[in-house]
Protein: Ion-translocating oxidoreductase complex subunit D
Amino acid sequence: MANYDIDLVVTSAPHIRDKVTTAFIMRDVIIAITPALIGSIFIFGLKSLLVIVVSVISSILAEMLGNVLFHKKPSLNDLSASVTGLLLAMTLPPSSPWWMVVVGAFSGILLGKMIFGGIGSNPFNPALVGRAVLMVSWPTYMTTWIKPQIMIGLQNISQASPVDSITTATPLNIVKLQSYSQLISDFGSKANLYKALFLGTVGGSLGETSALLLLIGGLYLMARKVIDWKIPVIYIATVFVLSPLFGRDPIFSILAGGLFLGAFFMATDYSSSPITPMGKVYYALFIGFLTVLIRQFGSYPEGVMFSILLGNAFVPYFDKIMPKVYGVLPKKEVAK
Structure:
């Protein structure tokens, strides 16, 4: 029998490679979030554009600093820092001061990403880490909302300063501090409320007002197979089903706040979400349950950010939940 010398080369994972690159995926995310970005500028004015630009530039600078501090290879070409900046901006009020946006971007990139090893190693969504830091540091700024320009007249669409002085409360704030019936009274009817939430003519963060624009982006990501349908669909469905158990309008619950933004763009982050099919299901159910629970009993009117960050912490456990494999004996039986 002939002898053959075989050179075995052992490399680290991943062993299965795909032509789809990180930059390709991030480019699709940017395309998907663009309708909401444009919508926020139209709804809130040029103040929104300032928040977006400062957030993106700060995230890129933070990534450059992180590469130096943690001795990482340059990673700006993968566009992940730009995506983090865009997503962070979408979670902030239009009236956010520029210095606060800078702090949020650096916190999200350095504390939520680079300190764990960079892209692919972060257990928490970096944009939400940045927002969480800002929320606990400057709660007043983070809960000051301006009235959409559409509600005060389109003649001010090119002027940011007149709008800054007109503050308003978000629908979730009104429900938390007053009542749902008061909210209906303010809008005239449920139909008017649903329409305002769907189109985005309500107070709130840049990316949490128009459910329509976020839905368009989410459908694009699913059509492109950038994200799996399980997490966003099950997450939204869980909030819809559980909300009536606490006396909340299910349609209002899924349209209000940052649920669509969180479902399509935050909870589906590759690094901080489960990779197994069943893990995704349990993860989506878990964060949906937490969102309803926090909205009902928490001191904050919104629960999307906290629920996703808590869900991120449990991702390793969700990935270990595997369906029963028939035809395979349990370990105890094998040992006998």
The CA atoms of residues 295 and 302 lie 5 Å apart.
